[in-house]
Design a protein that fits this description.
Layout lengths: L14 H10 L5 E5 L5 E7 L2 E7 L6 H17 L8 E8 L5 E8 L4 E2 L7 H18 L30 H22 L4 E4 L8 E4 L2 E8 L6 E4 H12 L3 H4 L2 H11 L4 H28 L4 H4 L3 H10 L12
Helix pairs in contact: 3-7, 4-8, 5-8, 8-10
């Protein structure tokens, strides 16, 4: 089974269980459940301070969690100015339902969701520079012997083909055609590109900004999709969300210029970028549709990016014209 393909979000743990888990990790306080895809994420307030309490899915392997927390520790040491959470406590705990789960506490990052404060070229440039700095900081993090086979890994997009049969025919045809393009035109080039540990999920719900100055990035969260892949896959993820609004699409040159000023892009990397972005949007359509059909209680959260991705795919490759030339 591919990691995370069949995992659904657990709903069996109560707030009292979360409070008890926090207490076992040394923090007493009140908890509030936050939106998340598979794990249970809580805002914990203890001693007047806020923290993040994460209770992982019961099927999550301990080594996968250690890989993610190790990346956070590495970033804290390698690039302390990057606004990423700090790991404060971690243990594998038993719960009243009989299951054991990786459980940890992170520092709370202040700010507002980027999704609610989209802005212009200055914000795009800040995002580009931030992503490049994180990429460089992760470059020397040793990967695990067998990196997690993440469902959202763009480099392995063909693994979602079986899901096409489980979603509506229209989106399935559109996404299927993009996957065919990826197989024929992008995959053969990926083996020549630099690979490393990447964040792999820089979407607007995983980035915080200062609401008074939306060009100031105050947080990058959710390392749950961390994997090892060509570094361009990470950039493609971030840009796939920028593409979905025409006004934001116009700021992509500023994003790319700022990224390239920190971590220059090769001609080979630029050549695959549009294809990787289209593939990521196809994945957004397929995976969100497939999961929402099986977890309707979480459909609003799962489908929040599907309409924008569908619109971009329907518009075709022409929307990328001239976007990834030399700066």
């Amino acid at each position: 089974m591919m990691h995370h393909i069949f995992m659904t979000r657990e709903m069996t743990l109560t707030p009292q269980m979360a409070k008890d888990a926090a207490a076992r990790l040394g923090l007493d306080g009140a908890v509030e459940l936050l939106a998340s895809e598979r794990d249970l994420t809580w805002r914990l307030v203890s001693g007047g301070r806020a923290f993040v309490l994460k209770i992982c899915h019961a099927e999550e392997a301990p080594w996968v969690v250690e890989f993610q927390l190790g990346a956070l520790r590495h970033l804290a040491a390698r690039a302390p100015a990057l606004p990423v959470p700090r790991v404060l406590a971690h243990a594998r705990l038993g719960y009243e339902d009989g299951g054991e789960r990786e459980t940890y506490v992170l520092s709370w990052l202040d700010g507002a969701l980027l999704s609610h404060h989209r802005d212009g070229a200055a914000q795009a440039a800040a995002m580009g520079a931030m992503m490049a700095r994180m990429c460089l900081a992760l470059e020397d993090l040793p990967p695990p012997p067998a990196p997690p086979a993440q469902l959202w890994d763009v480099a392995r997009a063909l693994q979602i083909r079986p899901m096409l049969a489980g979603i509506e025919p229209g989106p399935a045809r559109l996404a299927g055609a993009v996957l065919d393009e990826f197989e024929a035109r992008v995959m053969p080039r990926l083996g020549t590109l630099p690979r490393q540990v990447i964040h792999n999920d820089c979407n607007p719900h995983n980035v915080f900004v200062d609401p008074a100055d939306p060009a100031r990035i105050t947080g990058i969260i959710d390392f749950g999709d961390l994997t090892v892949a060509p570094r361009m896959c990470d950039l493609a993820v971030g840009l796939s969300y920028q593409m979905q609004t025409p006004e934001l699409r116009a700021t992509i040159p500023a994003w790319l210029a700022a990224y390239g000023a920190v971590a220059p892009l090769s001609a080979g990397e630029r050549a695959v970028l549009a294809g990787l972005i289209r593939t990521r949007m196809a994945m957004t359509v397929v995976i969100s549709s497939w999961r929402a059909a099986r977890a309707p209680e979480n459909a609003a959260y799962l489908l929040r990016y599907r309409a924008g991705a569908m619109a971009c795919l329907e518009a075709g490759e022409g929307i990328f014209e001239g976007m990834f030339g030399d700066e």
